[in-house]
Design a protein that fits this description.
17 helices, mainly alpha, single chain, 80% helix
């Protein structure tokens, strides 16, 4: 009896269910967070069960990447539990939850590599429609936010974090459209490119406003023919001249950036960039003084002391210390020490290396790596469990679509 059950389970195709759950995780992440967590946990538990039931089919080199991710996640969890804080215990909780999501998604990825051949085209087409619907809904909701309340849009949450998560979803959506063998693919790419770039502009997050259009331009150069590019350029020109595309938002953010840099050089540290510069200097100082890590309480007190003594008591920086230091490497290093930095850099390098080795697709490698690495230079992403599981879920779907594309072409 038990033997028959195990045989049926080994023959069962769970791969399509897991991939569908991952797509739903991304769909619900910004709009219905509780549903997103349920679908992620379901994908995790199914993967975990079948890892023990079916132990074959994964190549040795495919084990390395999930293993690196798991080690990083476990280290985050260990730091959160080993170092204790009272006043800033929420920082430990954020990294603990983030570490859990990292480990969960890494185990799902590990299992995916063993069942990637079982994912069928029908499931991928359903997921493609899910991603497109999600992108349209979030873009529409962002426009509603802008028209109703004005200011920066956050797609239902804080503008900066919301724009990071939205950009990850949007790039994934553009990628799955770009490899779609259908008549109106190029038209869809242009439309979704315009919609998402407009939404990114309305978010007002500077690093995303810079990096996202560059990623899209790279996509256009690789995937879209010359006639489509001419048509798109004409549309952009019309949009700019009629002010449908709010270029003034872009120019104002650029001007603010230069003004803030100039002000900081004159010892005016009260701006947003001035706060970041002060926080980065404080974090680098703390890493040098305490290379083995600190609790959040200890780190924040040292950072406040440094800012008060060396950064003219920068009030904006002192407010931000309560949360993070606006840079993933510096924030993790100031809390988790040099080992945390080494593990984070190992994750960055492996993300770039293995995404290209597994897929031989430079576009996919850029879309996977650039948001997490570049955005992390000016903000702190790994403290957000939501960003972590969206980025990791997107990583799984990128590999899934790329593998199916390559298997069909070969």
């Amino acid at each position: 009896m038990n033997s028959n059950i195990l045989t049926r389970l080994r023959d069962f195709n769970e791969a399509n269910i897991i991939v569908l759950l991952i797509a739903l995780t991304i769909l619900f992440s910004l709009s219905y967070d509780f549903l997103s967590k349920y679908t992620l946990y379901a994908a995790f538990y199914i993967s975990l069960i079948f890892i023990f039931i079916r132990k074959d089919g994964i190549k040795s080199k495919e084990k390395i990447f999930p293993f690196i991710i798991i080690i990083f996640g476990i280290f985050e969890i260990s730091w959160a539990k080993y170092f204790h804080s009272i006043q800033y215990d929420n920082i430990h909780s954020h990294y603990y939850n983030s570490g859990k999501r990292i480990v969960m998604c890494a185990l799902i990825l590990f299992h995916f590599f063993s069942v990637k051949e079982r994912v069928n085209i029908r499931t991928l087409n359903i997921c493609r429609y899910i991603l497109m619907v999600s992108c349209i809904y979030l873009s529409g909701y962002g426009l509603y936010e802008y028209l109703s309340f004005g200011g920066r849009i956050g797609f239902g949450m804080y503008a900066t974090t919301g724009s990071y998560i939205y950009s990850v979803q949007a790039l994934l959506t553009l990628y799955v459209i770009s490899i779609w063998k259908m008549k109106y693919r190029n038209l869809l790419l242009v439309l979704f490119s315009i919609i998402t770039i407009l939404s990114i502009i309305l978010s007002g997050t500077r690093v995303v406003m810079l990096i996202y259009p560059l990623c899209v331009i790279f996509l256009w150069l690789k995937k879209i023919n010359f006639k489509i590019l001419i048509s798109f350029s004409i549309f952009i020109f019309i949009g700019l001249t009629t002010k449908i595309i709010p270029l003034d938002l872009v120019t104002s953010r650029i001007n603010n950036t230069f003004n803030e840099i100039s002000a900081y050089q004159k010892n005016d540290v009260s701006s947003s960039l001035g706060a970041r510069f002060s926080l980065w200097k404080a974090g680098i100082y703390i890493i040098g003084e305490h290379p083995y890590g600190l609790s959040a309480d200890q780190r924040n007190q040292l950072a406040k002391n440094y800012i008060n003594e060396k950064q003219y008591g920068n009030s904006a920086a002192l407010d931000s210390v309560e949360y993070h230091l606006h840079n993933d490497i510096i924030n993790i290093g100031s809390l988790q020490g040099l080992i945390g930095i080494i593990l984070l850099l190992s994750l960055y390098i492996s993300m770039v290396y293995f995404s290209y080795i597994f897929t031989h697709d430079i576009l996919l490698t850029i879309f996977i790596s650039v948001p997490t690495i570049v955005f992390g230079f000016s903000d702190t992403l790994f403290i957000s469990s939501k960003y972590v599981y969206v980025a990791m879920s997107a990583l799984i779907l990128y590999f899934c679509y790329s593998y199916k594309k390559n298997s069909i072409e070969n």
